[in-house]
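To close the section, here is one more complete example, presented without commentary so you can practise reading it yourself. The ligand is 4'-deoxy-4'-aminopyridoxal-5'-phosphate.
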Amino acid sequence: MSKYWSSLVENLKPYVPGEQPKMANLVKLNTNENPFGPSPKVIEAIQKELNDNLRLYPDPESKALKEAIAHYYTDHGIKPKQVFVGNGSDEVLAHIFQGLLKQDKPILFPDITYSFYPVYCSLYQVESETIPLTDSFEIDPADYKRPNGGIIFPNPNAPTGRFMVLQHVVEILEANPDSVVVVDEAYVDFGGETAITLVNDYPNLVVSQTLSKARSLAGLRVGFAVADEELIEALNRVKDSFNSYPLDRLALVGAVAAFEDNQWFEDSCNGVINERERLTEKLEELGFEVLPSKANFVFTRHKEKAGADIAASLREQGIIVRHFDKPRISDFLRITIGTSDQNNSLIKALSEL
Ligand code: PMP
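Output:
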């Protein structure tokens, strides 16, 4: 007789993160981390906190961080009460799926997008409908004018890297005044434009961001959302029904310090953008088609060679890129922008294929 927990396990289909292999000299271009590392001020702040305060619980409201984020966006009139923080933007998104999207109609998201969305739908029993991208792998706002229980998409989209102009985001917001529209801006700082500028005009908009990419703190696990106060209050209530202390003391002081070193942040983004443009040119010279990217990765396919074969051959040489075995994109590779040296190793290996 089968045990009931076997079927519980069978029915849970979790998100599968990119692998984190531990080999020396690996060129790791598979999980969109930032190769330039965090600001030294972040390390300093964490070291100080480590020495002083680990005995104590952290601030359950993460007040200092909400203030730092609101201050960063002060030109757009953002107040600390409009900021929600969580343990990585994955956790922020989990709270959004639990608290803001569950309605009597399916939520909408693109069919090629961040693969955590269907996982949350399944876990929180949120019905969904996926909308195909256009032939050029773009999100068409006209496709999001149908009854729904909420809308979510990354901008830039992942794994395509394609950015949707804010005017199109506005079109979606205006067509759906009674639905929550979530713009997942994990990659926005690499040349996109944030929809946080629209938050005070559209009470149905939630923008989520992360410190994992542009601020190079994937290991610290800090993400946040900015929205109308009422939606943020709903997220706070979900959080307090789940874990009152999502951000530990080290994450809190590190994240605050990251928002105090904007020079480091800007230099890091510019470094990634310059390398992305250089890599794109080289890939095109080598016979690859590269989708226009505003992220810290490129989505690319070779005109003749299969994506899976290229990924396998790179791997043999210690270079790891991401290949998705999914319809329509199985020929593509998603390649994180590395340092100049890492990108040069990649280019060399690809030119010898
Ligand atoms: N959204 C998108 C589109 C992503 O690609 C990622 C990174 N995997 C995340 C959110 C989550 O990032 P984090 O939890 O590190 O903030």
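Once you have examined the tokens, check your reading against these statements. Residues 88-90, 114, 154, 158, 184, 186, 210, 212, 218, 223 surround 4'-deoxy-4'-aminopyridoxal-5'-phosphate (CB under 6 Å). The chain has two domains: 7-37+263-352, 40-261.
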